[in-house]
Amino acid sequence: MTVAERRTLVEGRGLMKTFGGAGLLRRKTINRAIDGVDIDIFKGEVVALIGESGSGKTTLGKVLLRLTTLDTGVVRFDGQDVFRASSRALRAMRREFQMVFQNQSANLHPKMTVREMMDESLRLHRPELDATGRAAQALELLGRVGLAARAEQRPASLSGGERRRVGLARILATRPKLIVADEPTSGLDAAIKQQMVELLKTLKDPDLAYLLISHDLGLVRKISERVLVMLKGRIIEEVPAAELGRAPFHHPYTHKLMRAADLLEEGRHSTAPDAAAAGARPFDPADRGGSSPAGCVHAADCQLGARLGILSRCSNERPRPVPLGPSHWVACFAAEAKEATG
Predict the structure, then answer these.
(1) Looking at the domain assignment, is residue 132 inside a domain?
(2) H or E stretch including 98?
């Protein structure tokens, strides 16, 4: 999909989501799970959201689908304000956006067969179908996910990968425009994971967009078109999936992720090794407690800012996106220095 062909499906602007709790000495702490995020998802694309645990990825996915509340900001789905929609309008929208959770077993009825669960979903979301139509549609959907032969099985008889495919088939029954898939391959062995990768490729459709939340960067590079990198509640980089680990410049945090996944082509990359390589303390989600830092959320762990002599600015001023190419930007003052020097 070229930039000119993009049609916006989901638009989020100024999104802020905080969680409060009791900290040391019973002082109230504010954890910013989402900290001023802007995001667009385009019709028919697969966009990946990556970052370590605690960075806010799942919370962002839930906010976009109004599965949790939002402190400030606006989310629009196909032009409609999700958080200002009436109950009736929201019910209609919920047929068009769905979420695949990590624990898919919790969404399957243990005493119902796969066929019965499919029939239940179709009765709810496709009221125009009679019993014969639902049976045919259920078989067609199960065929798409490779489970037609398992229609009379109950969840206990299915493997973890098969349960996730049942969940996907039930979601497809709603004819959604957007699927948020939260770690769709986590906990699966290599062979089953590859089956899920091939299935997701097969299910790509011009009328269906995916937000793929994943730690599996190999999966991300195989099936997504665009990658968003999230750290401590902020999106700090957007890059085409084909350039992930290959672009001449990445945010230093993205550089760390790529190096850890052994996906970094070092010869093409100008970001210096990150402080994490020298034994810096890894990110702890508890570090988000209290006020959000005024500067870059990676400043405390970034050697590049120190090497370039801009660490004071990094620590005290929030960086804005710096465009580096089509669909590639980073929120990094080092990128500004790179642009200024050519």
Answers:
(1) yes
(2) strand 97-100
Say whether both 233 and 130 belong to one domain: no
- Helix/strand/coil for 76: strand
Beta bridge partners of 209: 178
My answer on whether 42 and 114 are in the same domain is: no
3-state secondary structure of 248: coil
- The position carrying tokens 């990359």 is 269
Q: Which residue carries 């398992």 as its tokens?
A: 150
Model confidence, pTM? 0.86
The whole-angstrom separation of Cα 288 and Cα 54 is 9
Overall domain count for the chain: 2
* 183 and 160 share one domain: no
Judgement on whether residues 86 and 48 belong to the same structural domain of the protein: yes
Dist CA 253 CA 276 (whole Å)? 9
- The answer to whether the CB of 237 falls within 8 A of the CB of 247 is no
Verify that 226 and 83 share a domain, yes or no.
Answer: yes
Q: Which of 175, 200, 226 delimits the end of a domain? A: 175
Q: Mind giving me the DSSP string for 195-235?
A: HHHHHHHHT-BTTBEEEEE-S-HHHHHHH-SEEEEEETTEE
92 and 237 assigned to the same domain: yes
| Residue 283 CB neighbour total at 10 angstroms | 22
In a structure prediction context, what are the per-residue pLDDT tens digits for the chain, which is 342 residues long? 555 567 999 999 999 999 876 555 555 667 889 999 999 999 999 999 999 989 999 999 999 999 999 999 999 999 999 999 999 999 889 889 999 877 666 778 999 999 999 999 999 889 999 999 999 999 999 998 889 999 999 999 998 888 888 988 998 998 999 999 998 888 778 777 878 788 888 888 888 999 999 988 888 988 999 999 999 999 999 999 999 999 999 999 999 999 988 887 755 555 544 433 333 333 343 333 333 468 999 998 898 988 888 989 999 999 999 999 999 999 999 988 665 444
Note whether residue 101 is domain-resident. no
Indicate the SS3 state at residue 289: coil
Q: Could you list the residue range(s) of the whole structural domain that residue 46 is in? A: 3-96+176-341
Residues 132 and 42 in one domain: no
